[in-house]
Amino acid sequence: MSVRLRLTLWYSGILALTMLFFGIVLYFFLNYFLYDQIRQDLMDNAESTSSRIQKSFALSQKGLVVDLELESRDFYSTNTFLQLYNVTLKSLSRSANLQRYDVTIPLTKEAIDKLQTTDGFFEKTTVAQGQGQGQNLLVYHKGIYGQQNGEQKLIGILQAAVPIGNYEKTSVTLRYTLEIWALLTIIVAASLGWFLARKALRPIERVIDAANQIGSSDDLEKRILYDGPRDEIGRLTDTINGMLSRIQVTYMELDEAYRAQRRFVSDASHELRTPLTTIRGNVDLLEKMWKMTSGSTELATPDQMELSLEAMHDIAGEAQRMSRLVNDLLALARADAGIQMEKKQVEMLPLVQEVARRAQLLDHTAEWRLGDLTALEQATVLGNRDYLQQLLFIFIENAFKYTPVGSVTLETLRTDTFIGIRISDTGIGMDKEDVPHIFDRFYRADLSRGLTTGTGLGLSIAKWIIDEHDGSVEVTTRKDEGSTFMIWLPANFLMSV
User: Fold this and answer.
1) Of 159, 199, 224, 260, which is the most buried if we count CB atoms within 10 A?
2) What percent of the chain has pLDDT over 70?
3) Could you tell me which residues come within 8 angstroms of residue 169 by beta carbon, excluding any fewer than 6 positions away?
4) What's this model's pTM, rounded to 2 decimal places?
């Protein structure tokens, strides 16, 4: 539900409750005031007529039989219908207007019984008037009492009535008028509220449209146009425009840095291929010359042969170092380009055993220790065999590099769904401030800077390989005590037959 619709519903609901409360109060107040005036007039008329009857009765009382009659002037009342019922004689006397319409006001036994305990009460009733048409009357029943046989008894009932059909029609008309007026007012207010809410929230729609355009087209140069007052929406627009400006500057800086890095990786990779080809060609040529001149002192002296041999070793070493750098750069370039490595199920036990065997041939001064590998039995990983080998060699070579004295150990663990390969050393370790950055490109801890050779790309490549295999790595290190890298890879375990 939109904010515009919620605001409209809230305002319409509040207005509806206000109109409902006002209409109910007005209706009942007018209704009460109108009927209260009618009741008061009817009661005054009944009391006046009753007092005259009481005086007449007092003068003409005869024994046990009491004759009650309306006076002649009571028969010509046009505003009020009067009817006198003689309880003793069980006779009726009606005013002239009742006789003219040939109408009798109903009198029930319940009304007679009620007057035994109360002086008077009001009651609504309906009487037939001409061709079966009903006429609504408000009737006031007034009891007339007298002494009979020494007891105060009900001897007559005076009924004073007025037609209330017109009043009821007025009340119904008033109710309908209030309902229709309230409904129309709510509809108009809701329409006007919808229009005003739409107009007030239109700048927010512009904010949304601009954000969608920026999100879909990556165009950070667009801004939100707003020419309204400096209210909350105006300040919000200015804030978002300012934020977009800062994002644009940051994005441009990051994009430029990213393009520069990609250019560096691409240029370095291509530029290093040419000298590598030349170096390897010269190495091949020198090897051939060495074979041709070996044993002959006429073409080369022993010193020349020794120098040639040293040159070949230097060239070969540089070629290997440059090859490693190129391979690292190309691996990172592939990672940046989003190239997906080919994967298949790889048995981990033979792979780790092969890596452990070849690790013994690496240049190292620390003791190489191979732990229990039974955790890898029947375990396979969906991955790339070459990259998994490269991953392990990176951590092992790093451990040898930073452990001049001590030992480097490889161990394995397993859980229900993962295998773990732990490579630990007793080398120089790292400060805790360096740990969050060791997987950054070209980062090298200050302690080792200048003491060991390297490009600072190995652990970045290792982290990329781990991420591509949906794995994780844990690092535990302490300065001057060594480091431990725990590699976790999701694995499948074959059922042994």
Assistant:
1) 159
2) 75
3) none
4) 0.44
CA quadruple 363, 369, 372, 375: dihedral sign: negative
Nearest residue to 26 via CA among 188, 168, 174: 174
Q: Distance between CA atoms of 162 and 185, rounded to whole angstroms?
A: 37
- Of residues 399 and 179, the one with the higher pLDDT is 399
327-356: b (≥16 Cβ within 10 Å) or e: ebbbbbbebeeeeeeeeeebebbebbeebb
What residues contact residue 49 under an 8 Å CB cut-off, 6+ apart? 70, 71, 74, 82, 158, 160
Per residue in 125-163, pLDDT (tens digit) is 888 765 446 778 888 998 888 776 667 788 888 888 888
Residue that wins the pLDDT comparison between 293 and 145: 145
- Has residue 63 got a pLDDT over 60? no
| 282 pLDDT above the threshold of 80 | no
**Cα Rg of the chain, angstroms:** 55
pLDDT recorded at residue 182: 79
* Cα distance between residue 457 and residue 471, in whole Å: 19
**pLDDT at residue number 381:** 94
Bridge-based pairing of strands 367-370 and 407-414 is parallel
- For the record, the structure tokens of 452 come out as 């060991």
User: How many CB atoms neighbour CB 103 within 10 A?
Assistant: 18
Strand ranges in 415-491 using DSSP code E only, listed in sequence order: 418-425, 472-478, 482-490
What b-and-e string marks burial along 453-491, b requiring 16 or more CB atoms within 10 Å of the CB? ebebbbbbbbbbbbebbebebeeebeeeebbbbbbbbeb
For residue 434, how far is the Cα from the chain centroid?
Answer: 39
Say what the pLDDT of residue 452 is: 56
Instruction: Note the Cα 127 to chain centre separation in Å.
Output: 66
